[in-house]
Amino acid sequence: MSTPSPSIAIRSNYAERTSTRIAFLIAGLIMSAWAPLVPLAKERTGLDDGGLGFLLLGLGTGSIVAMPFAGYLTARYGCRPVIVWSTIALCAVLPLLSSVSWLPGLAAAVLLFGACMGMLDCAMNIQSIIVEKDSGEALQSGFHALYSVGGILGAGALTVLLSLGLDPLLSVLCIVAIVMSALYKAAPNLLTYGTEQDGPSFAIPKGIVFLLGILCFIVFLTEGALLDWSAVFLVSSREMEPNMAGLGYACFAATTTVGRLTGDAIVRRLGGVRVVTLGGLIAAVGMIVSLSFDGWQASLIGYALVGAGCSNIVPVLFTAVGRQKRMPQRVAIPAIISMGYAGILIGPAIIGFVAHVSTLSIALSGLVILLLFVSAAARFIRS
């Protein structure tokens, strides 16, 4: 059997990088499109903060149940089929989230949405780690930057469409059309293989992997809180018009994108430990600004600071888990991904329950303490 020429290998890796970036873009588009729909769903069903938090728990439940299966399916059949079919399923469910008023039906749709989102997230992150390792270059910040670009496009585009008076269902169908076009472009060069089939797809993390998982959990919890609660907070506490409330997450996603687009250079200059230390501090200050000053303008500035601070923490953590020797990669990677995405999906529900017994401002203020913990724990991360 002849060995592929270096030029062919380079072209192949470039195509795989492009498809990986598109997969992250798709995930950001779909996930952020949910943000402007949350206050509309709350109004449609007449839920209070506690009821909305319980509804959002379906996102986390569906994801956690699905992720181990995603790891197994990716190892057995490859990244491509898992990414493709989970994306198609998400495109089928998203219109239901914009139109269903019957609470049990909406709860079932949220549960399915969480399961499909968890499978997509797990498969695309496995692909990104494989592609980065094969390339021999630092690529994680760039991949995650495309997720943030998707966040801007999804939340921003849907907010604009709703502001123009377009029906929520028709607005969501526009997003679905964009996603399906992107999937058609990416599918041919998604990986037809995944991680090794030996060993479990999920295991309880140990040592440094456990710490990295906790830090991922906190950062993703922060993102999930802004995704699901920023619009609600802006409407209920800052008197912003509901059709403009998606700007909160859009500001977060915009600064996250800028940070990640320059992230590889920043990490090379400052080192991973300093990036996590400063990032946690900046994000904590952003949350304080968003909660302490009246007016929705101050809240938008605060969300922008949170995005800038959090932007490169997760890429540094993913690189760290790829270098650690405490656990085999086939176990460590699914473990940290599961812990991280548990934060983005379970965290918002916890915030809803705390808001129900106190206030939404008090619930969100808990993020300040958690982000300061991330900053303090950065010294345990080895370059």
What does this structure look like?
With 383 residues, the protein is mostly helical. It has one domain (6-380): MFS general substrate transporter like domains (Growth Hormone, Chain: A, Up-down Bundle). It has 15 helices and no strands. The chain has helices at 6-33, 37-45, 49-77, 79-97, 103-135, 140-163, 168-186, 207-237, 247-261, 263-270, 272-292, 296-310, 313-323, 329-357, 360-377. The longest helix is centred in the first third of the chain and has 33 residues, at 103-135. The N and C termini lie far apart (40 Å).
Ranges with pLDDT <50 over ≥5 residues? none
User: Mean of the pLDDT scores?
Assistant: 85
Tell me the name of the CATH homologous superfamily. MFS general substrate transporter like domains
Number of helices: 15
Helix/strand/pairing class, anyone? Answer: mainly alpha
Instruction: Tell me the fraction of residues in β-strands, as a range.
Output: under 5%
Q: Return the domain count.
A: 1
Just give the CATH class: Mainly Alpha
Q: Which overall shape is indicated by the principal axes computed on the Cα atoms?
A: globular
Radius of gyration: 20 Å
What's the main sheet like?
none
Task: State the CATH topology.
Answer: Growth Hormone, Chain: A
Terminal CA distance reads 40 Å
Number of strands: 0
* SSE arrangement, N to C: HHHHHHHHHHHHHHH
Query: Which bin fits the share of residues in helices?
Result: over 70%
Q: From the coordinates shown, what is the CATH architecture? A: Up-down Bundle
